[in-house]
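User: structure tokens for this one?
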Amino acid sequence: MPRLADDLEYLLAVAAATLNEDGTLIEANAGFRRIFKMEGQEPFGAQVSRFFLQPTFPTLVHTDAGADGEIYRGLLTMGDDVTTRTLHARVWRLNSRLRVLAEYDIDELERLNEKMLDLNRDYANAQLELAQTNLKLRQREAQIVALALTDSLTGLGNHRRFEQAMATEISRAQRTSGSLCAFMADLDHFKRVNDTFGHEVGDKVLAAFAGLLRRETRSTEVAARIGGEEFVVLMPHTDLADSLTTAERIRVATAAMRVERMPERITASFGVAKLADGEDSDAFMLRIDKALYEAKHTGRNRVVAG
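Assistant:
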């Protein structure tokens, strides 16, 4: 008996088989075996007539009984009580055997394919929405962290931001044998500003000085407000001479600064120091503070190195 063509043997989208008229299988390709969950089994002798649901197997056998040639063309439903498949089929009789060739419903495949595309699109949209939500959450988290490290009045870093930056920069300087300088600035007679012109004007003075610090320092430097009228600037990779120059430039600019509703000249005093080998943050800040104290008590509006 001729066997199934080689190009049909392994196809899954086409069901091909040869049966005896009593409904036992002689041969079946992969697509046919899949319908009846016979993958990996030897199909010869299996009784499959009961799986022909519409039309039934007896109906096919008795169509043009005894005549060879095509005996059926149309939809063929096969399966069991759990799973059925409706295919486009042709059935031939040849030497008292039936040859079945059935293709899966192309429309059904297209519907399934469209459903899969819809699912893929839904999944992609869900992934995109999730990614956007995560991005927004990360951005919000970054905003919260930034707010926690920012002085609300001036927009500079607050004391916590300064402490974090100080620890980082001291560690970096000690690890790389680099230079680290810092200066502390204190606005002169600031209490008199508040008492004479009011706290609203005092806030304007603080904000104006903070803006001056932002303009006159580099992006790698950290400026922070650490007290009422006390500010500090960390200057990595900077030697003492350059730090003194920067502080002096800011001192001069402060004296020239004009603030709305503030008729008097504003001045500031500065203490500057360079981190010594093996020095910790407390000792470093103590030297800067002593230099600032000296600037305050030797006339104000001046820069002193510690």
